[in-house]
Design brief:
- The chain is an alpha/beta fold and 502 residues long.
- It folds into 2 domains: 5-258, 3-Layer(aba) Sandwich (Aldehyde Dehydrogenase, Chain A, domain 1), CATH 3.40.605.10; 262-445, Aldehyde Dehydrogenase, Chain A, domain 2.
- The protein contains 14 helices and 23 strands.
- It has helices at 5-14, 45-62, 67-83, 85-96, 100-120, 159-170, 184-200, 216-224, 237-247, 272-283, 301-316, 336-351, 403-411, 426-432, and strands spanning 26-29, 36-40, 127-129, 136-144, 147-151, 174-178, 209-211, 228-234, 253-257, 262-266, 294-300, 355-357, 361-362, 371-372, 375-378, 394-400, 415-416, 418-422, 442-445, 457-458, 461-462, 469-470, 479-487.
- The longest helix has 21 residues, at 100-120.
- The structure holds nicotinamide-adenine-dinucleotide (NAD).
- Nicotinamide-adenine-dinucleotide is lined by residues 151-156, 160, 178, 180-181, 215-216, 219-220, 223, 234-236, 239, 242-243, 257-260, 291, 389, 391, 417, 464.
């Protein structure tokens, strides 16, 4: 048996077939209870290459399909996902350990981006620009790129693919998806539904999307393939660095969505009740395993003691446990490596003189499941592990006296993904979101750092990689831009008034 009963039942409900015979593959475990969910065959380099060849052939036809017709595929896919929201949400929970509410929320993001892409399919517009030459037309037009390689992280096993896939497909590209080896089953389910939607519409699904399963070596095969025109990679900054370096020699386009070390500034005028809600959702929610998780809390000295007291009270009784159970707010860490990294950071902080509250392992269920009480760590200044991304629920807190210094502390991290300020002072809010404020891709006021909507561009600066995905005009990343000059006159005037008479 390659798959456990729960997985078989979910795939059965989805109508997505599981491979009946698997050669030797890698194992996918559930962080919920440590049990084996299934064994998945890793794609060889030759299989990746063959999949790219098929995707390239399919691209040659797909690019000629009118964009609104391509949008219909996203309409159908979004509808199918909506019909199967519950089992898909449950699959995310089983595979990543995020609570069911968040699993369902992630599936909702898939539905939302499909709707966005459907609308977008009629709005892929270029520009008409005034030409300096008589009887000339200057245009900017946008065209599909080719095969897009999508590499995704374990913690958003469906949404990140969908952000990329919905836009890339509507823009006329075809896809190869290298999901996280820790979330291989979510990828099989979602890609299966996309192919099913294409088939039900009478489209040739062959080559529209293929999944290359495996570890980083599979991702590297995709990155290195010359017929992959864009690599959209989501994961750690270390991964992004390796991808960027591999793509540099041939100037292959990259869209990088990497790590974050996100801060929130709490000002003297902040509504502390709202702060506590925003902070706990961002810092402890998803067991601190979101790229936008809140990791650094910079608190004005005048409200520090009050806020700490409230946070300690909430953290002390946060319901940690089985993420499928109603009422539980914090599920497990993904695996032992995540637990070890968390304990290492806490020890380092303690050795540097920080005060550590909570962070201990909770013995719930199987020994192979890693549940922790989210930690709060008080530092007298921003230093040590506070300036690194540890993908676990550790909230570092430190006091500040001057708002400008707090902004400088926010910007001192190597990453530049998300940030927020809690204040009732209009000037502080405006400064924070201005050119003088946060240097992050996301700068919020009176909400936490996590939980973005699909309508905006998502991504960050510095070691977060600079890429943007999802809403706004991010579709432009999946197309190539052409400038066209058309002469509808009978003479040939040159730009800049250059004379070149024969
Ligand atoms: P990871 O970097 O370990 O793996 C991400 C993906 O990259 C996996 O599919 C992995 O197999 C692949 N990979 C790793 N090395 C590679 C290489 N050299 N070449 C090609 N592929 C390679 O990340 P993870 O542990 O799955 O996820 C957590 C990290 O992802 C955190 O740093 C988090 O902040 C980040 N993340 C960022 C975003 C964002 O949008 N900015 C979203 C989710 C997660």
């Amino acid at each position: 048996m390659n798959y456990c009963t729960d997985i078989r039942s979910i795939f059965n409900t989805l109508g997505v077939p599981l491979p009946s015979e698997e050669p030797k593959g890698f194992e996918v475990f559930s962080p919920v209870d440590g049990r084996l969910l299934g064994q998945v065959a890793a794609s060889s380099q030759a299989q990746v290459s063959a999949a790219v060849a098929v995707a390239h052939q399919r691209f040659l036809a797909w690019r000629a399909v009118p964009a609104p017709k391509r949008g219909e595929l996203l309409r159908a896919f979004g509808e199918t996902v909506r019909q199967h929201k519950e089992p898909l949400g449950r699959l995310i929970t089983l595979e990543t350990g995020k609570i069911l509410q968040e699993g369902l929320g992630e599936v909702q993001e898939v539905i939302d981006i499909c709707e966005f892409a459907l609308g977008l399919s009629r709005q892929l517009y270029g520009l008409s620009i005034a030409s300096e030459r008589p009887e000339h037309k200057l245009l900017e037009t946008w065209h599909p790129m080719g095969v897009v390689g999508i590499i995704s992280a374990f913690n958003f096993p469906m949404a990140v693919f969908a952000w990329n896939a919905a836009l890339a497909l509507v823009c006329g590209n075809t896809l190869i998806w290298k999901p996280s080896e820790k979330a291989a089953l979510s990828a099989m389910a979602l890609s299966g539904l996309l192919l099913q939607s294409a088939r039900n519409m009478g489209l040739d699904e062959h080559g529209l999307v293929a999944v290359a399963q495996g570890e980083s070596v599979t991702g590297k095969a995709l990155v290195d393939h010359p017929d992959v025109k864009l690599i959209s990679a989501t994961g750690s900054s270390a991964m992004g660095r390796s991808v960027a370096m591999a793509c540099a020699p041939t100037f292959k386009r990259t869209l990088l969505e990497l790590g974050g070390n996100n801060a929130a500034i709490v000002c003297p005028s902040a509504n502390l009740e709202l702060v506590v809600r925003g902070v706990v959702f961002s810092a402890a929610g998803t067991a601190g395993q979101r790229c936008t998780s809140l990791r650094r809390l910079l608190v004005h000295r005048s409200v520090y003691a009050d806020l700490l007291k409230s946070l300690l009270k909430v953290y002390g009784s946060l319901p940690v446990g089985d993420p499928l159970k109603e009422g539980v707010l914090v599920g497990p860490l993904i695996d032992q490596a995540a637990f070890d990294a968390m304990q290492k950071a806490l020890k380092q902080a303690k050795d540097m003189g920080a005060t550590v509250h909570f962070g201990e392992r909770l013995t719930l269920g199987d020994a192979k499941a890693f549940y922790v009480r989210p930690a709060i760590v008080e530092f007298d200044a921003q230093k040590g592990p506070m300036l690194q991304e540890t993908f676990a629920p550790i909230l570092y807190m430190t006091a500040y006296d001057d708002f400008d210094v707090a902004i400088a502390m926010n910007n001192a991290a190597a990453h530049g993904l998300s940030s927020s300020v809690f204040t009732q002072d209009l000037r502080e809010a405006e400064v924070f979101t201005s050119a003088l404020g946060s240097d992050c891709g996301i700068a919020n006021v009176n909400i936490g750092t996590s939980g973005a909507e699909i309508g905006g561009a998502f991504g960050g600066e510095k070691e977060t990689g600079g890429g943007r995905e999802s809403g706004s005009d991010t579709w432009k990343a999946y197309m190539r831009r052409a400038t066209n000059t058309v002469n509808y006159g009978t003479s040939l005037p040159l730009a800049q008034g250059i004379k070149f008479d024969l």
